[in-house]
Amino acid sequence: MSLSAEMRRLRELDWRNLDIKESGSWPWSLQVLCCALVFGLTFAGIHWYLATPKQAELEQVRAEERELLRDYRLRAAQAARLPEMIEQMEVLEARMETLMAMLPSGAEIPSLIDSVSDLALDSQLSIDFIRLRTPVERDFYIERPFDIQVRGDYHRIATFLAGIAALPRIVTQHDLTLAPVEDGEGLRLSMLARTYSYRDNDAEVAP
C-alpha cells in the first residue's frame, strides 16, 4: 500500500467509532503509532517502578562519597600537620609546667607574704598592714587576695612595686591608690594584690 493511500485512509477514518477489538483492521500507521504509545508508556512505567528508587539510592551513595572524601582530605591534612602539632603541644606543656611552678601552694602563702614585707622594708617603706583576705575558689585554681598598705616617697614605692612584679611567684596588682600622707611627708600606697595556687580536686582550701 502506498503512503498516499495510507494517508487517505487516516483522513477518512471515523475516530469516534474506533473499536479496540477491530484494531487489526486499522490503518497500519495507526497501529504502529498505538504500539509505540503502548511501548513508551510501558517503558516509562518500568523506569518509574524500577529506576527511580535506584536513582535515590545512587544520589545517597554519591552524597556519602562526597562526605567521605571531605573527611579523608581533612584527616590527611591533620596527619600532615601532626609533627608540627606535637611540637606545639610540647611547647605548651613546657610553658604550662613553668607557669604551674610559679603558683605557690597553700603552705607557701605565709612565706610569700614575708617576701612582700621584706621588699617593703628593703625599699625603706613603712608598712601599715599586709592583710590576707578569704581565698576564692575558681574552676581550676584558688585565688588568694591580700591587701597592702605602705608609706614612703614616690621612687621607693615604685621600687617596691617593681620588686613585687619580679617575684618568682605570680602576684598580680590591682586597685592601686596613691594619696598624700596626712600630717607627714610622702605618699600612702593602698592596693589589692592577688596570688594563685593550683586547685587539686581533692584538696581543701588552705586558710
Automatic annotation (TrEMBL):
Transmembrane segments: 28-50
Pfam entry (one): PilO
InterPro entries the UniProt entry points to: PilO, Transl_elong_EF1B/ribsomal_bS6
Keyword match Transmembrane: yes
Coiled coil start-end: none
Keyword entries, A-Z: Membrane, Transmembrane, Transmembrane helix
Protein's UniProt name: Type 4a pilus biogenesis protein PilO
Lineage of origin: Bacteria, Pseudomonadati, Pseudomonadota, Gammaproteobacteria, Oceanospirillales
